[in-house]
Amino acid sequence: SDLYPGIHYVRLEMPGYKSWEKIFEIKESETTYIAHNFETATGDAFSINTEPDGAEIYIDGEFQAYSDTVLLNVPAGQHEVTLILDGYSDYRKTVYIQEDMSQSLTHVFEPLPTTGTVIVESNPSNADVFLNGEFKGRTRLTLEKVEPGTYSILVKKEGFEDWEGVVEVAAGKISDVYADLSARKVAVTINTAPEGATVFFDGEEIGKTPLDFMAGQGEHELLITKFGYADLSERIELGYEGGNFFYELAAMINEAIADAEAAIS
Questions:
Q1: Quick one: average pLDDT of 142-159?
Q2: 48: how many CB neighbours lie within 10 A of its CB?
Q3: Which residue, 220, 215, 142, is CA-closest to 185?
Q4: Could you tell me which residues are beta bridge partners of residue 237?
Q5: What is the pTM of this model?
């Protein structure tokens, strides 16, 4: 409203449609009507070529034609183009069609892989890996070009319990295997001079020397006691080879020993 009489210009724009413009005249004391039916905005020629040719062409999930071909009147805007050819990996690409502009898309297909990949990791690392009983290497290990199928897998490391599992291999896929290895218990021997001392291992009484037992790897608290001798307390470290320990106990004052033995008697 409230436009001055005379010649005017109008332009209508709407996403996805062709813009429209018009010159018109407004007369004094009259109402001027303008109407327009929009036309969908399209690109010009959109050529799609593949190697090999004959691929199915889908735009936004709808089949259009087979390559090599030229598509006309593809709506302007963003679209997802999918190319499918038997025996090859599908190809997808997002394209933006410009209004009234010629565009092209070319794709060389890659053959579908016939083998898979297996990636083996372990904690701790550097463990031996056996696939169907055959040694393949040490973790972290990537096995490529593995034929599809089901395989038994064994992960071994000195000082740790063996880890066993099964891995499924599919063409074109990566199969991940993670082995969390548990430390194996090791043999421990404790001898003292004199013998017959009581051994406490991590606070628990486990026997008298000479003593053989199994324990987990790592740090442990050791306490050795014997009547008439000073207590011996020590922190020991056990590796995967276990441990063999010998301790000479320190005698207490002879008079104290004699008094204690007399009191016991």
A1: 94
A2: 24
A3: 215
A4: 219
A5: 0.51
